[in-house]
């Protein structure tokens, strides 16, 4: 069993090491950085989902749903005075969406809906016309369409089955953009590239690659690394900004990342970066399992006696010690570090405890990230 676990761990780390090796190699600028002026914008709105099969809001518990129904019907020219609604086919929802950069009026985007009241399911519902506003209060899109819900629930007299979330869903291409953002791409003077993984070495290397391209194309330097996250690119006078961005984002650079060990204790996942180093340490790992077993015995009195039946306790305690092997770890490379950890023959949760102890001892030359 231990050999199987160690083989699994070695295969997992080797796969991630191969991925990290590619990350340390050549990468295009578009893969490691994004344009500051081309960021996304979040939209939000309040609406109603209709057509539910009795799984909507109960109007007593969700009075805002009834108010919204009355307001919607009055806007459609239907009077609701003097009548009370008892329907459970309507649910009040919050509608959210992400407005992509440089989006033009008439294009479509996906929206997400989530229940606000006590509705049990949005499956089969239809989102009615809902305006989506930005942080400035302006309406940028209008959403409407059928709600797609991936979860489901089934209920009987004695059992209930739930899978996924039934009170949230998506409307693919459900919103039409009605207003474009105030700023346009070509209205800018300079380009600011933001690294997705901030690093001074990568930022300086990116600026150098852009300046090398600019020297051959425009005869001068145009890029400067501001800090570990942003690189400023000045637009040459005779250059087209869109063409310049197309050329810059396809330049190939060398990327670098800090040495990290990422640990998820809940799932037992361990990811070790390629540059992780461990000073020479001696590690011993062992577990002590104490098992307590209760087997009470029933004691019967003698025949025709006045005694009573009693329970006589019987406890068995067993202590089992596993492991205890001492190994020398000297992680001059990722392969040697993994081989040293596997030589101890422990499970992934034991490897997590060992890595945390090595970090506490000051021998792990990397950042330890716990999730």
Tags for this model:
371 residues; alpha+beta; Alpha-Beta Plaits; 3 domains; six-stranded antiparallel barrel; four-stranded antiparallel β-sheet; 25% helix; disordered N terminus
Report on the architecture of this protein:
The chain has 7 helices and 22 strands. With 371 residues, it is α+β, with helices and mostly antiparallel strands. It has 3 domains: 2-23 and 259-370, no CATH class; 41-177, no CATH class; 184-254, Alpha-Beta Plaits (2-Layer Sandwich), CATH 3.30.70.3400. The strands form 7 sheets. It has a 6-stranded antiparallel beta barrel with strand order 3-4-5-10-7-6. Strand 4 and strand 5 (108-115) form a beta hairpin. Helix 1 (2-24) runs antiparallel to helix 6 (334-344). It is flat. Residues 1-23 have low confidence and may be disordered.
β-strand percent reads 35-45%
Give me the count of strands. 22
Shape: flat
Order of helices and strands: HEHEEHEEEEEEEEHEEHEEEEEEEHHEE
Structural class: alpha+beta
The tally of domains stands at 3
Portion of residues within helices: 10-25%
What is the radius of gyration?
A: 32 Å
Q: Which residue ranges are poorly predicted, with pLDDT under 50 across at least 5 consecutive positions? A: 1-23
The largest sheet has its strands arranged as 3-4-5-10-7-6
* Biggest sheet layout: 6 strands, antiparallel, barrel
Q: Count of helices?
A: 7
């Amino acid at each position: 069993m231990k050999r199987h676990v160690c083989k699994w761990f070695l295969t997992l780390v080797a796969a991630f090491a191969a991925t990290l090796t590619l990350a340390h190699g050549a990468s295009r600028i578009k893969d490691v950085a994004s344009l500051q002026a081309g960021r996304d914008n979040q939209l939000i709105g309040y609406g109603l989902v209709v057509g539910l099969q009795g799984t909507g809001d109960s109007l007593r518990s969700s009075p805002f749903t009834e108010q919204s129904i009355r307001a919607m019907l009055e806007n459609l020219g239907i009077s609701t005075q003097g009548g009370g609604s008892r329907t459970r086919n309507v649910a009040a929802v919050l509608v959210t969406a992400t407005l992509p950069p440089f989006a033009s009026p008439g294009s479509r985007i996906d929206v997400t809906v989530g229940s606000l009241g006590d509705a049990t399911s949005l499956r089969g519902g239809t989102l009615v016309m809902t305006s989506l506003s930005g942080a400035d209060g302006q309406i940028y899109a209008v959403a409407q369409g059928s709600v797609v819900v991936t979860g489901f629930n089934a209920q009987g007299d004695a059992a209930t089955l739930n899978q996924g979330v039934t009170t949230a869903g998506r409307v693919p291409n459900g919103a039409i953009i009605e207003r474009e953002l105030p700023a346009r791409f070509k209205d800018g003077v300079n380009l600011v590239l933001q690294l997705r993984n901030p690093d001074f070495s990568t930022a300086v290397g990116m600026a150098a690659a852009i300046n090398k391209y600019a020297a051959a194309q425009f005869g001068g330097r145009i890029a400067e690394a501001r800090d570990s996250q942003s690189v400023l690119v000045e637009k040459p006078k005779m250059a087209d900004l869109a063409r310049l961005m197309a050329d810059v984002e396809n330049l190939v650079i060398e990327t670098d990342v800090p040495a990290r060990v990422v640990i998820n204790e809940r799932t037992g996942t361990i990811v070790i970066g390629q540059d992780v180093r461990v000073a020479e340490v001696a590690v011993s790992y062992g577990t002590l399992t104490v098992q307590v077993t209760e087997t009470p015995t029933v004691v019967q009195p003698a025949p025709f006696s006045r005694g009573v039946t009693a329970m006589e306790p019987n406890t068995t305690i067993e202590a089992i010690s596993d492991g205890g092997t001492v190994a020398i770890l000297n992680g001059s490379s990722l392969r040697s570090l993994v081989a040293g950890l596997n030589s101890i023959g422990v499970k992934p949760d034991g490897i997590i405890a060992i890595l945390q102890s090595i970090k506490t001892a000051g021998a792990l030359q990397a950042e330890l990230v716990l999730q």
